[in-house]
Design brief:
This protein has a single domain (14-215, 222-239, 262-419), classed as MFS general substrate transporter like domains (Growth Hormone, Chain: A). It is mainly α. It has helices at 14-37, 39-47, 51-83, 87-102, 114-137, 139-142, 148-175, 190-206, 208-213, 224-240, 246-277, 281-309, 311-331, 335-346, 349-363, 369-381, 386-398, 401-406, 408-419. It contains 19 helices and no strands.
Length: 430
């Protein structure tokens, strides 16, 4: 593909930047409430036959979702490059995520509903992750080279704020409501299941600004069938010519490894707290609220550090800190130590994720950003099944969810070592 220099705006406009950040505010309710703190814990403690088995089943479900995303991400990214549009694809997968999330309302507190819950959790997760592909590719549209790290970090911070506020609503309005609002039946866990409806509505409403205020450049329409054929051809060519973008692919491999650990810890953290320390839904939500505060502060600070030290250094500093703090989390024997270590660990989630997105934007040739972000999503998901699956396998083999989760530290160390060979050598507009 011929590379075309796409000039960045001289100064980022407020409305598109705010709309970009609001999408993070919208979709963070899904990751915090469904994947990490509320529904995942409810599944392990309320739907599954027993918590340990429930933790393993949830881990395997997330592993399967990772396989699906790994297959679809590079294909969809290449197709988006051919059509020159990301917003229509983002809208489609967001609708899938919203609808399948709402369907989790029907998962009652009985082992008979394990299949239903896992099925729609997987579908909604695939929709969410595919949306992140197209959403991330919009970052250079709203940012300038000088502000891309700051805007990426700010968006992550706003996202954590969205997670915090949605968790607070879930806790004080639904879970702890006495009596529960809308006549919800606690005996049937409707006050917890209703959090899925909260997430669906939250995502649908707060994602709207992105589709209204972010404008994509005009591009000639291409029939869907032709876009698919050309997109697949482009993907194959990109993979065959990997040696021509060796630095990018070295980064993708490193990101594949450490992102697996970060996503696994984030996705299974609530289950870990419930299974290992016996935390009930209310306490898990309070933990989630606290973690979102520290994570949001870390993300905001990480964006400024990114613009000053560079994306690679920001990621490496964050990974070292995550290795230390996650080790303390896994070794903690009482709740107080666990809480302190978890709060410290969460501070570095935002910087490593935001800086990873920024580094991908910095390294990618402008005309190939959709394709590169497709491979970026692939690198984060091609082995995404391995982290949760390893946790599940070790948990079943040892009967200890603590030992299962400890395997994520190995991925963090390996990712850090691989990242050392990456050179931050291309300007954003190159």
């Amino acid at each position: 593909m011929t590379e075309v220099d796409i000039p960045a705006p001289e100064k980022p406009a407020f409305k598109p930047v705010a709309a970009f950040c609001m999408f993070d505010f919208a979709n963070s309710a899904f990751t915090t409430i469904i994947i990490t703190f509320v529904f995942a814990t409810y599944f392990a403690q309320g739907i599954a036959a027993d918590p340990t088995m429930g933790g393993a089943q949830w881990s395997f479900g997330m592993a399967f979702a990772g396989i699906v995303v790994a297959v679809l991400s590079p294909i969809m990214g290449a197709i988006a490059d051919q059509t020159g549009r990301r917003k229509p694809w983002l809208a489609a997968v967001s609708v899938i995520c919203v609808i399948s999330t709402a369907m989790l309302w029907f998962a009652g507190p009985t082992p008979d509903d394990v299949t239903w819950a896992i099925t729609f959790a997987v579908i909604s997760t695939v929709g969410f992750e595919m949306g992140m592909l197209f959403y991330n590719a919009l970052l250079p549209t709203v940012a300038t080279p000088a502000t891309i790290g700051r805007i990426s970090g700010t968006a992550w911070a706003v996202g954590y704020a969205g997670g915090l506020i949605s968790l607070a609503v879930a806790l004080f309005v639904l879970v702890q409501g006495d009596p529960p609002p809308f006549g919800l039946d606690k005996a049937a866990a409707e006050h917890v299941r209703a959090t899925a409806l909260l997430v669906a509505g939250w995502f649908a409403i707060f994602s709207l600004p992105l589709f209204i205020f972010i404008k994509e450049p005009e591009s000639p329409g291409i029939p869907a069938a032709l876009a698919i054929r050309q997109g697949l051809k482009q993907l194959v060519t990109s993979l065959r010519n990997a040696r021509n973008h060796g630095n990018i692919f070295r980064y993708l491999i490193a990101g594949m490894v450490y992102s697996d650990a970060v996503h696994t810890i984030f996705a299974l953290g609530g289950v870990y707290a419930g299974v290992t320390f016996g935390m009930k839904t209310e306490e898990v939500i309070m933990l989630g609220i606290s973690l979102n505060v520290t994570a949001g502060l870390g993300a905001a600070a990480g964006g400024w550090i990114d613009d000053r030290l560079g994306s690679k250094k920001t990621i490496m500093i964050s990974l070292v800190a995550l290795i230390i703090t996650s080790s303390l989390v896994m070794m903690a024997q009482d709740r107080t130590v666990f809480w302190i270590a978890a709060l410290a660990m969460s501070t570095f989630f935002g910087p490593v994720q935001a800086a990873s997105r920024t580094l991908m934007a910095r390294l990618s040739p402008p005309a190939m950003r959709g394709e590169m972000f497709g491979l970026f999503a692939l690198s984060g998901k091609v082995t995404a099944f391995l982290g949760p699956a390893t946790v599940g396998w070790v948990t079943l083999a040892t009967g200890s969810y603590r030992l299962g989760m400890a395997t994520t530290i190995i991925f963090l160390v390996a990712g850090l070592l691989l990242l050392r060979g990456v050179k931050e050598e291309y300007p954003l507009s190159a």
